[in-house]
Amino acid sequence: MLRLHNAALGFGDRQLWSGLDLDVAPGEFLAVLGPNGTGKTSLLKTILGEQRLTSGTIEFLGGPVRNGNRRIGYIPQQKLIDGGTPLRARDLVALGINGQRWGLPLSSKAERVRVDELLEAVGATSYANAPIATLSGGEQQRVRVGQSIAADPALLLCDEPLLSLDLAHQRAVSELIDSQRARSNAAVVFVTHDVNPILGMVDRVLYLARGSFRIGTPDEVLTSEVLSDLYGTPVDVFRSRGRIVVVGSDEHDHHDEAA
Amino acid sequence: MLHTGDDWWSHIFDFSNYGELLALVHNSILAGAILGVVGGLIGVFVMTRDMAFAVHGISELSFAGASAALLLGVNVVAGSVAGSLIAALLIGILGARARDRNSIIAVLMPFGLGLGILFLALYTGRSANKFGLLTGQIVAVDDPQLLALLVISVVVIAGLLLMWRPLTFASVDPDVAAARGLPVTGISIAFMVLLGLAVAISIQVVGALLVLSLLVTPAAAAMRVTASPLLTPLLSVAFAVASVVGGIMLALGGGLPISPYVTTISFLIYVVCRIVGARRTPGRAKAAAVESPA
Fold first, then answer.
1. pTM for this structure?
2. Is B20-212 a domain of CATH 1.10.3470.10?
3. ipTM of the assembly?
């Protein structure tokens, strides 16, 4: 359903990645991993039609990608919404249904019913009417999941949705995303710097580093051999109690950091 | 001139011959009510987009435009609109990011104020006109001016109502709004144009220095007591209209500028809302802390 062929993306002289062939099937959970600045978020922007490939082709549901496609749901990085925002949790979800429509923010009966369903699906009913700014990061992120699945998308794009959440909320939010995948057979493209919270759900991994990449199952890609090759420097991958830890990929930044 | 306590007080509040005075200023009251609607509505987005400082910056350039018009003997509203729009567009285009925006405003604001002072210093006409631009002069609204204010207000209100929902989306959640295909940049520029117009007409009432009391305080007060996307603008408009109309009516007798009345009412409403809001929010904050142990 999502197909990139010989795709390349760069800005000016800097090539982020090239020669990317990727075919994402319905219901597939793809994790996009790699250090900062390797074009993970740019890949999402390309799928969203906000960024053009330098070369190659990208297709979604058999057609070219276009900006504003309702069949794609998007969960951005967790940014806390602060005070001075006159919205309640239910209003943020409603924007997922009709936020692109011009005019006054009035919702029809059917839309209000749908908002209630979505809030319940993500377990946010108890704070549906709370001002969004008073919610914790985990609560806000649940509401965002509700917003992103409002139009029953065929593809869910998640850009570090677990960032700065505690472990319990990391698990809860990623399970919400995975259950939506299972329920509607939507594909998930999940950008993250830490694969561990979603390791049990991931079908395949796209690992970007140094302008190059590897695609495969977590077992195929997340090995010392493959990552050492990718980084061009010795990297050790340890597995302990179902967690994966990558050591030595970058002496300064990624020391001891999980893949 | 010596003021006894009584004199001083009657200078602030004097309601003799009130009926006759009221008939004389119905134009001003009408203009004030409409401005209240404009300020209350646009204030909601000024708050959501965190642009209170931008309002202040635009108003100083608007003041420069108005004083240039005064000096050249052309329409003051037109001058103030021109100044406003230039400032609003500069801030909108150059200051997409908050940090850039603040520095651009801080650069523009004193420049605008300086230009305005220069033009006023060169102006040799009535000095009441000069002071009015800074602190308000609505009692002097004549028919053609009223018409100009009305037309601009209708444009701003219609524009806001038309793009209310996408503007909310783009203000609160620009990444997702862009992903959904909303022209986030275009919306933001359109908003700056409306904001420029709103500032320009507010200056006619409360003056350049006090525009915030009409474009920020009412919305800020409303947000203290509600987060409902419908109730917030309604309350904000009610507060703004109460401040302007109430201010004009109180100022009628005294012979002082209306601004202190408007700003004081608007401030008092804010204080009350803050107190009411503070009594409510702790409950929710505590509840959130219990639900989500950090």
1. 0.86
2. yes
3. 0.86
